[in-house]
From TrEMBL:
<feature type="transmembrane region" description="Helical">
    <location>
        <begin position="72"/>
        <end position="95"/>
    </location>
</feature>
<feature type="transmembrane region" description="Helical">
    <location>
        <begin position="253"/>
        <end position="272"/>
    </location>
</feature>
<keyword id="KW-0813">Transport</keyword>
<feature type="domain" description="ABC transmembrane type-2">
    <location>
        <begin position="37"/>
        <end position="275"/>
    </location>
</feature>
<feature type="transmembrane region" description="Helical">
    <location>
        <begin position="39"/>
        <end position="60"/>
    </location>
</feature>
<feature type="transmembrane region" description="Helical">
    <location>
        <begin position="153"/>
        <end position="174"/>
    </location>
</feature>
<dbReference type="InterPro" id="IPR013525">
    <property type="entry name" value="ABC2_TM"/>
</dbReference>
<comment type="similarity">
    <text>Belongs to the ABC-2 integral membrane protein family.</text>
</comment>
<keyword id="KW-0472">Membrane</keyword>
<feature type="transmembrane region" description="Helical">
    <location>
        <begin position="186"/>
        <end position="206"/>
    </location>
</feature>
<dbReference type="Pfam" id="PF01061">
    <property type="entry name" value="ABC2_membrane"/>
</dbReference>
<feature type="transmembrane region" description="Helical">
    <location>
        <begin position="116"/>
        <end position="141"/>
    </location>
</feature>
<dbReference type="InterPro" id="IPR051784">
    <property type="entry name" value="Nod_factor_ABC_transporter"/>
</dbReference>
<keyword id="KW-1133">Transmembrane helix</keyword>
<keyword id="KW-1003">Cell membrane</keyword>
<protein>
    <recommendedName>
        <fullName>Transport permease protein</fullName>
    </recommendedName>
</protein>
<dbReference type="InterPro" id="IPR047817">
    <property type="entry name" value="ABC2_TM_bact-type"/>
</dbReference>
Amino acid sequence: MTTTTTRPATTGKDPSALSLGLHRGVIELKGFFREWDNVVFTFALPIVLLALLGSLFSGIYEGSTVTSAQYFVPSMIAAGVASATFVNLGISIAADRDDGTLKRLRGAPMPKSAYFLGKVVMVLVISIAEVVILLGLGMLLFDVELPTEASRWVTFGWVFLLGVIGCSFLGIAASSLARTERSAAAVMNLPYIVLAFISGIFYTPISALPEPLQQLGAVFPLKWMAQGFRSVFLPDDILPQEIVTTSWEHGRIALVLGAWCIGGLLLCLTTFRWRGRRDR
């Protein structure tokens, strides 16, 4: 007598890359918040800089109601978003590459896009938290007022999203520059600090920068993120203190940030490595 084994019918579909990426994002967030030293450094650096430098600035710009400290707040928000995306992603991916996580994930039956989507979910949540904390600090210490016009919040939304996407792609691409996990922090923080200086983050106003640095900073997305956020949280009477004095150039901001999103994606596709150099 022969017995026939019947497999149960499966009606469910394989999980999509989107659902796997969201699940991976939850795992990434849990891993991030378990490492308290990383959490403290990620959030504390922009907060400490805002509190210290904002307290050092004084005075009101001529022809405006904006103080030097208030001018500094949206610029520091842009720097906080760049830190949460570019620096944090570069270091975390370099660590995954160094400890063999990327090598194992590449061989797993999971779409490669799910890994990157998980990382983007992580930095998106961190960036939102960074913005809330910095904006709250600016309101508490420097009397920054939230805009009441819906159009300003729409501007904030697309500047934030384009900035997060562009800086995330650049962080993923730059992660390949670090040979090991130990060197990743230095490799990622050096260009971040340089870009912060030439993008006018630590200058109030940006027009105080030497013209060659203004032109160099205008090549990169951080300068345009900061200008976009200033257009949201500062009144238009501060425009004479900007490099441009007639408008906030929202069209140009969108064009430059969008170009860096596309360029960053191309850099990721051409430079990203799944294996560390020691594995070759």
